[in-house]
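step: validate -> pass
step: tokenize input -> pass
step: predict -> running
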Amino acid sequence: MHPIYLDNNATTPVDPRVAEVAYRYSVDEYGNAGSRTHTWGLTAAKVAEEARRQIADPIGSQPDEVVFTSGATESDNLVVFGIAAHAEATGRMHLITTSVEHKAVLEPVEVLSKRGFEVTVLPVDEKGWPAAEDLADALRDETVLVSTMHGNNETGVELPLEDYAAVLSNHDAWWHVDAAQTYGKRNEVLSDKRIDLISISGHKVFAPKGIGALIVRRRGYERPPLTALMYGGGQERGLRPGTLPVALVASLGLAGQLAEQEAVDRRVSCQAFRKQVIDALDSLGAEINGDPGRVLPHVVNASIPGVDAEAAIVAIKDLVAISNGSACTSASYEPSHVLTAMGLEEDRVAGALRISWNHETPMPDWDAVTSRLSAITR
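step: predict -> pass
step: emit ->
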């Protein structure tokens, strides 16, 4: 039997209802949305437009503000690199981001810094989120882009977007939010119209891998001045060429709709599961990493004194499947840049475990898990 899957921040299972839609538009209704001369293509185009509505409605956006991508990583890159030409043309070459961002933001920003852009990286303390006051102090007239995540993929800490919105209310910098971990879970926050750009990833909200979106909101009649990274077709308002993967697009649309409809029940289920996780960790004397008052209900990051993360993962691998950080950087074997930025001690960073679940995750045998972990305490 498979161990119980507790790595939902890395990827979620595909909802069977979503999988059914993916099958239908892969096998039965497989038209190209760009082929408008026959019913197959027209049907595909209608499906894509309905998916835009399903994705946009829960966060108070318009369907024509949805740009389909392969996922949040591509969306993040499209924002950071896409704003560069405008920044260079206007002389506004200052970017602000945070020290706990996903590498899909931090690495593109680093590339732009080597091209002459000035970058301010907002620090965090042991709570894991930057203060709004630091954002206010960092803003300049020449700031063109502020990029902040909503929920951290390693700690589950939710950044105070409401406070950032207040700071940015009188500044015209474009604001991008990486919502890979929160779209479908904290939509009410993402509905704030001050947020100009939102990155979404399908496989974090029970849709298949390989599909995501970038919400490009109009500010009055003005759209964020992004330049495409690829060319050859002009799809997605010229920002993302290529044939739309209608089956994946329809899947993301339904996943977004279901997440909104079931949000309350899903949150309650995750909160109940979290209590069991915390009780098990408390019995081991674990230290929770990140502000417990701002953590999302489906994830916990913790370090158990005397327990190495790699050893822990091996010891319980037949019981539960957990991780020790971001799946996107797991091949590097480097200490977590998020926990390091939080100023945690080296041993605590090395021992950090990320446990993440969903509303349908079965309850593990926590007694067996804690017994195994107790046995390997140094």
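step: describe -> The chain has a mean pLDDT of 95.
step: cleanup -> pass
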